Amino acid sequence: MVKAGVVCVGDNPCTNPANKITSDQIVTLDGSIISAAKDRYFMLNKPAGVVSVTKDHQHPTALSLIFEHRSEELQIAGRLDIDTTGLLLITNDGKWNHKLTSPRSDCRKIYQVTLANPIGPDYTEKLAEGVLLDGEKHRCLPAVMEQVDDHCLTLDIAEGKYHQVKRMFAALGNHVVKLHRSKVGGIVLDTSLAEGDYRPLTASEVACIR
Length: 210
What we know:
2 domains; 4-stranded antiparallel β-sheet; 14% helix; elongated
C-alpha cells in the first residue's frame, strides 16, 4: 500500500516504507487518519455468569463486553471465577499484565465474602497464620480479615491461587456463597460502573501497578 502511494505523511504521498516519521506527524491511509498502536488499560465490573477467558462456546466472556478497536489484542490480567463479580483488569500490555499477576509482585487483592455458615471466632487468627489448602504443600500467605456481620467479611490477600478464597474457607469448614473483588493493588473498582460496564484506567491507576 505504501508503494502504491495510498499512504500519506502530512499532505504528501509516501512511497518508501523505510521513511522514518515522528509522533507529531499525521499519517493517512486512503485519506483516513491512522494512529500508532499504544498500550491500553481498562477496568471491568464483571457480572456473574461471565468467564475470564478469551473464547468460550458456552458462556459470555469478559472480552466480549469490551467494545474497542482491535479488541482481539486485549488480554485479561488476573482472572475471576464465573460466579465471582467485581474488578477485572484488561490490557494489551503484556509486561504490565505480568507485573500484576506475578507471584513476586505482592499485588494485594481485596474481596467481599459472604459465607453459608457463621464466621468462626478463630477465623481471623487462622487466616493470619496462613491456611493450608487441600492438595497444597505450603500454606497460603497471611491474609487479613475484617468481619462485617455474622456471615460477611472483607478479605485482603496477596496471592491468586486457583479458587483460592473459596478453598481457604473450605479449609476452615465453611462455604463461600458470594464473592466480589473490589481492589487489586492500588486500583479500586469504580462504584459508578454498573455490572458489565467498563472504563479506561487513569494514568495514576496504571502507574500504581508499575
